[in-house]
Specification:
It contains 13 helices and no strands. It has helices at 3-24, 28-54, 60-83, 89-96, 99-111, 117-137, 143-165, 168-171, 174-196, 205-229, 235-242, 245-257, 263-283. 82% of the residues lie in helices and 0% in strands. The chain starts with a helix and ends with a helix.
């Protein structure tokens, strides 16, 4: 398959994540748990043996980093999927896609890496866009604001997952790393569900079908093709293509739910995407 077709198909598949999570009509922790747990089960026959050899061989500090990476991935899914209950899919996906900016900021804070000048310029542009999206979603109650804050929390969590796991990708085979992180994320979400009294059973067939689709389409299919495309195309190029996710998710939200983004979402989204394009292009 052409690498351009691969990355284009990856964007399409990833765009289904928000719509499928909404269609599941289940508590966010349950949706998050089954998304990564079922994806882990699918990956297990292909990566289980490699992970069983590689993970125990890691130094204790790196095993701790692997655990922390999985916990932050769990927090990402829990907060972002929860945001879909309070705000529009367009707003949620736009805001969660600010993760690259947070990743660079976290690298500066915890790894001592000096952020490029372009990030210093892009960050206030993205924050202005986020503020415009929040303003447009505000209807007088706190629901939409809560949704936007949850989406931003999801962006921070996935940025932490990326920064923490960056050094582990060289220490582990890719499939072993992915399986390890997903399994830890699933275990974390199961603990959170138990601690908060969220049931992980008793769902109707439609919800189970949505769980399976979430595991196969955006998780195994979408993110799997992203990893494949990164072997053939430069990371900034793949990053630019992935900025199509908010557009794809918004189109699907309109087709499935009749959800139309307001003018403030379009305006704020333009600022957010402009900031991300600036960072991706200049860093490439």
């Amino acid at each position: 398959m052409s690498p351009w077709l691969t990355v284009s198909l990856a964007v399409v598949l990833v765009s289904f994540g928000a719509v499928l999570a909404r269609l599941a009509a289940a508590p966010p922790l349950a949706v998050s748990f089954y998304r990564v747990a079922l994806a882990s089960l699918v990956l297990l026959p292909f990566a289980g043996r490699s992970a069983a050899r590689a993970v125990p061989a890691l130094a204790p500090r790196r095993r701790l980093l692997l655990a922390a990476s999985g916990v932050f991935l769990a927090l990402h899914f829990a907060t972002w999927i929860a945001s879909l209950s309070y705000t529009t899919i367009a707003s949620s996906v736009l805001l969660v896609n600010t993760a690259p900016l947070f990743a660079i900021g976290l690298s500066r804070a915890f790894l001592g890496e000096r952020p490029p000048r372009v990030v210093v310029v892009a960050l206030p542009i993205a924050l202005l866009g986020a503020a415009l999206i929040a303003l447009g979603d505000y209807t007088g109650d706190q629901g939409s604001l809560r949704g936007n804050l949850l989406a931003l929390a999801g962006a921070v969590a996935v940025a932490a997952y990326q920064v923490i796991g960056r050094g582990l990708r060289d220490a582990l085979p890719l499939q072993a790393y992915v399986l390890g992180v997903w399994a830890i994320a699933a275990a974390t979400l199961a603990v959170l569900a138990g601690a908060t009294g969220v049931a992980l059973h008793g769902f109707p067939p439609r919800t189970w079908l949505a769980f399976v689709a979430l595991a196969l389409v955006p998780t195994i299919g979408g993110h799997g093709l992203v990893n494949k495309s990164l072997r053939s195309l430069p990371a900034p190029t793949v990053g630019l293509f992935l900025l199509g996710e908010p557009l794809g998710a918004s189109i699907l939200a309109f087709l499935v739910f009749g959800e139309t983004p307001g003018p403030w979402t379009f305006l704020g989204g333009a600022f957010v995407l402009a900031a991300l394009v600036l960072v991706v292009v200049r860093r490439g």
